[in-house]
Design goal:
147 residues, mainly alpha, N-utilizing Substance Protein B Homolog, Chain A, 8 helices, 74% helix, globular, transcription
């Protein structure tokens, strides 16, 4: 089965919401995942990708936050919950999903920030992820700048 861009987009949408819920409610990932399957039409989402993002962020939280935190102008704890969820999810993708171009990761995060984040959060997300991508995917970013 070929995974479509819209199925990935839907997976990211749900994963961002699930990570937000995980942070805010502190429920277990398995409980949150079960709730998402019960409450949402997951038929149009790339469910394995959703699961990878949700569980991958949690398993690698220190490394994920350590990758973007140096670019923040505040502590991770001071981020609004939507921005925190987006930075965690996107940085996880930059670290562990090299099959996804860094520009796609950033553009998807910007779109979600525009939809769910506070006013102008998308500009903040873009700036942090640009710097994080330059660190984590230096060769890909350099090749892109040459093209």
């Amino acid at each position: 089965m070929t995974v479509t861009a819209s199925a990935r987009r839907k997976a990211r949408h749900y994963a961002m919401q699930a990570l937000y819920q995980w942070h805010m409610a502190g429920a277990s990932l398995n409980t949150i995942e079960a709730e998402f399957h019960a409450d949402n039409d997951m038929s149009k989402a790339d469910v394995p990708y959703f699961r990878d993002l949700l569980h991958g962020v949690a398993k690698n939280l220190d490394r994920v936050e350590g990758a973007f935190a140096p670019h923040l102008d505040r502590s991770v704890d001071e981020l609004d919950p939507v921005s925190r969820a987006l930075l965690r999810m996107s940085t996880y993708e930059l670290l562990h999903r090299v099959d996804v171009p860094y520009k796609v990761v950033i553009n998807e995060a910007i779109a979600l920030a525009k939809k769910f984040g506070p006013t102008d959060a998308y500009k903040f997300i873009n700036g942090i992820l640009d710097k994080t991508a330059a660190d984590l995917r230096a060769a890909e970013v350099a090749a892109d700048k040459k093209a």
